[in-house]
Amino acid sequence: MTDTPLVIAGKSFTSRFLLGTGKFKNKQDLSDSIIAGKSEIVTVALRRIDLERHEENILEYIPPHVTLLTNTSGARNAQEAVRIARLAKASGCGNWVKIEVINDSKYLLPDNQETIKATEILAAEGFVVLPYISPDLYTARALVKAGAATVMPLGSFIGSNQGLKTKEFIQVLINEIDLPIVVDAGIGAPSQAAEAMEMGAAAVLANTAVATAQNPAMLAHAFALAVEAGRMAYLSGLPLKHSIANASSPLTGFLYDNAPSN
Amino acid sequence: MNILINGKSHPLTSAKNLSDIVSAFCRESKHVITELNGTIVPSDQWKQTSLKDGDALELVTFVGGG
Questions:
Q1: Do the domain assignments include residue B61?
Q2: Taking CB atoms and an 8 Å limit, are A49 and B7 in contact across chains?
Q3: Is A68 within a domain?
Q4: Which strand (E) or helix (H) includes residue A36?
Q5: Is A106 a catalytic residue?
Q6: What's the structural domain count of chain A?
Q7: Which of A18, A56, A94, A133 stands the most exposed, by the fewest C-beta atoms within 10 Å?
Q8: Please, are residues B39 and A83 in contact by the beta-carbon 8 Å criterion?
Q9: ipTM for the complex shown
Q10: Cα–Cα–Cα angle for A128, A142, A149, nearest 5°?
Q11: CA pair distance A135, A155, nearest whole angstrom
Q12: Tally of CB atoms within 10 A around A250
């Protein structure tokens, strides 16, 4: 297959499968999943250090060739997202940030308006900004203008494993936005990841599905294969769907001249 | 004196710099990020940064996240 690499902010990636690092039962599973899923971009979060419990740092389990993408989870508005991004940058672990602004605890839907504001500020400061949004064309256009490096629309509610509930709206972004569209959230199975890639998504991010599988590394590998298969199908020029049958064998009779009468 | 570390009050018997605090409270300082009274303090400035009574310090690091 001849494919161009995924390019985000001038950096090239062979893999189009991004992995989140939350919810893994143990850090070895995480490490194995990154390798098995061939992920080159993984997300992490920032939290206060628990001074009572000494935990091993998650970064020790992420291979050094991987690009770290710090999310701003926990941010309820643009200001908090900017603060978290600046803290992450101060660690010296790069300036790639996934803007995630959520102030609704039931559906965990991203606040698109605050996300635009945070993107404007951080892109101007030189961050590579990957904003996570509810798929909306006007928001995506504003993010392009604000200097986003990608647009990351949600497939369905975070951690719901429901797949591409927002499929038609993601397709609009793929068709209209001249930035890589990375489908994030709700991707619960490799088939759903393949579906997103067949539509022309540039990449897919999964976390909960892999982290909570009985064998996370095996599922990460399955995701990598599905993303690759979906990408290949997209590049092949997938034919359109038809509402009636279209014979795949010759329509003449087997031994007689007449085609079936119906 | 008392300083607030990650929202909790901690008594300090002697004046200390930020580097001492990080060593005392964190298992390793490698991926620790500090914010003192709302301002990020880069690790190369920890030694020169002394703490005073009532300071609010945040010690944060990376954890798993999607």
A1: no
A2: no
A3: yes
A4: helix A27-36
A5: no
A6: 1
A7: A56
A8: no
A9: 0.89
A10: 20
A11: 8
A12: 8
